[in-house]
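Dear colleagues,

As part of the handover before I leave the project, I'm documenting each prediction I ran so the next person doesn't have to rerun anything. This entry is a single chain, and its sequence is reproduced below.
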Amino acid sequence: MTFFNRLGENGERLARGASELGLRLSVMQLEQLAQYALLLQKWSAVYNLTANKSLSQIVSLHLLDSLAVVKPLLRELPSVQSVLDVGSGAGLPGVVLSITIPDVQVHCIDAVAKKAAFINQIAISLGLGNLHAHHTRVEALEGHFDLITSRAFASLTDFVTLTQKNLPEAGLWLAMKGKESGAIEAPLPSGVEVFHVEHLQVPDLDAARSIVWLKKHQP
């Protein structure tokens, strides 16, 4: 039995939701997402990686929620080659991005060792050569990334302040937020601006979601 078949009706929800989001996922990508969901459920039972431990919750609250940013990401930055997922936790959205955009190098950073270890195991188990885990604080991370994202990392101000050194002039920040109202927090660092707040409709999820897009001021 394949990993996808093991999800049962949740697998059908995953495939249907991805299609509703305008994504054409291959059989291999659906299989990888299903294997990730099963491993996340298994590891969470021991290491408490996420509070949402049922497969139904994992598919809706984690996989589909992360899949919702794939098309907006490629629209705003079509030539993206590297992504940094800050405070990645169990690999959301980083693992999902590495599966759905295989040509992009995805770097997930988390200060909690067990979470970085889980992402490393996912990269090995799913054969994701473009997925990289870093067990460190973002302040210590070097290098530049075309796009920097966060799903649950502190405040918007801290997110941008701590990663400003890692974003090139033409790069973008993608901050996943639970709702539009109050999503933009002040003050932002000098030289940084919000240029778009985008509402998301996540399939099978009756909750507000949005992306706050930020960039550096161009001289």
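Residues 156 and 182 are 11 Å apart (CA to CA). The chain is about 40% helix and 20% strand.

All the best with the project,
I.
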